[in-house]
Design a protein that fits this description.
Helix content is 43%, strand content 11%. By secondary structure, the protein is of the alpha/beta class. It has an eight-stranded parallel barrel, surrounded by five helices. Strand 3, helix 3 and strand 4 form a beta-alpha-beta unit. Bound molecules: ligand SI3. GO terms for molecular function: N-acetylneuraminate lyase activity.
């Protein structure tokens, strides 16, 4: 069991906010030579805001290939996103997860220095924590590096291979905290990219008053909204932000039938991508096509599906009424 943070005598875990909306997990633009391309981030920010209506971003996450980037690259990217988003974006969350605790702490401190709105971390997934207690000890070390910055745990079992139930993780944090608070006063919630809606629902049921829960499986967001998700973080909000925003708005107005119909169309599109053999690496190319901003190729070990027909994906998006023409404020690059 962890040492308690004894100096905290009142509970500091803030009340969760009702609805925080959509957060685009940004792609990392790269040059033809495979280096990070900071020069298009300004246009990217404008595209998200003016074309997709998305004003929250999650940078250097899974979609952004954060784990495949060097610490220096991640810092440069985070700085540029914050610089370009200043006065425009409502929130910039920086993913700081790494296999190295020291690197995660360094990235967390850097995020604090550049005034990121929040940080988030996955668990290391090569040398994995062997118990919920070990994971909580790790999260505590990262969160404590920047006690003033809101902190989220990033649950993504399909990639980390870590199948601890999030409810158990939160229970452990409660057990290790003082005054019935969760261990870290800056702990704000979970980015839940998992299919287990029983776990998700129980997390909201038991901790929804004090924490926020973002759902991360875009194709079934509506089910998580029904279970009172506070928002969503995902790759598809880069190019489906407007469509998903409309679904969210129907849901908030209580028009479940219309929200369901929108979710069905979004599912049809994502399902079409999967059937074409398209995955994360190719989503980056879809973003280039849809936004007219050159995202470049993913970095190895990710590889694109050379045989996939991207033009047909764009046609499908248009046929389903999900495509939005880039706003004129989005300056395109060759
Ligand atoms: C496994 C994965 O990449 N999941 C995506 C989803 O947005 C996913 O691309 C989408 O649901 C389509 O399957 C996000 O949860 C990832 C994410 O938010 C991130 O980039 O950190």
């Amino acid at each position: 069991m962890l040492a308690r943070t004894a100096s905290v005598d009142v509970c500091c875990n803030m009340a969760a906010q009702d609805m925080l909306g959509l957060v685009a997990a940004t792609f990392t633009p790269m040059t033809k030579e495979g280096e990070i391309n900071l020069s298009v981030i300004g246009s990217y920010v404008d595209y998200l805001i003016h074309t997709q209506g998305v004003k929250r971003i999650f940078v250097n996450g899974t979609t952004g290939e954060g784990i495949s980037l060097s610490v220096q690259e991640r810092k440069l990217l985070a700085e540029e996103w914050i610089k370009q988003g200043k006065g425009k974006m409502d929130e910039v969350i920086v993913h700081v997860g790494s296999s190295s605790l020291r690197e995660a702490q360094e990235l967390a401190r850097h995020a604090a220095t550049i005034q990121a709105d929040a940080i988030c971390t996955v668990s290391p997934s090569f040398l994995k924590p062997s118990s919920v207690g070990a994971l909580v000890a790790y999260l505590n070390e990262v969160a404590s590096a920047t006690p003033e910055v809101p902190f989220y745990y990033y649950h993504i079992p399909s990639l980390t291979g870590l199948n601890f139930r999030v409810e158990d993780i939160l229970d452990e944090m409660k057990k290790c905290g003082v005054n019935n608070c969760l261990l870290n006063p800056n702990f704000r919630g979970v980015k839940f990219t998992g299919l287990d809606l029983l776990d998700f629902g129980q997390c909201v049921h038991r901790y929804g008053q004090e924490l926020s829960f973002f759902y991360g499986v875009d194709e079934q967001l509506l089910s998580a909204l029904v279970l009172r998700a506070n928002g969503a973080v995902g790759s598809t909000y880069n190019y489906l932000g407007k469509a998903v925003g409309a679904m969210l708005s129907d849901f908030q107005k209580g028009d479940l039938h219309s929200a369901q119909n929108k979710q069905f169309l979004i599912q049809e599109f994502i399902s079409y991508l999967f059937h074409q053999g398209l995955g994360l690496a190719d989503f980056k190319r879809i973003m280039s096509l849809v936004s007219n901003i050159d995202m470049g190729l993913p970095r190895l070990p990710l590889q694109i599906n050379e045989t996939a027909n991207l033009a047909s994906a764009l046609d499908k998006m248009k046929a389903l009424g999900l495509y939005v023409t880039p706003h004129s404020k989005t300056s395109s690059t060759p």
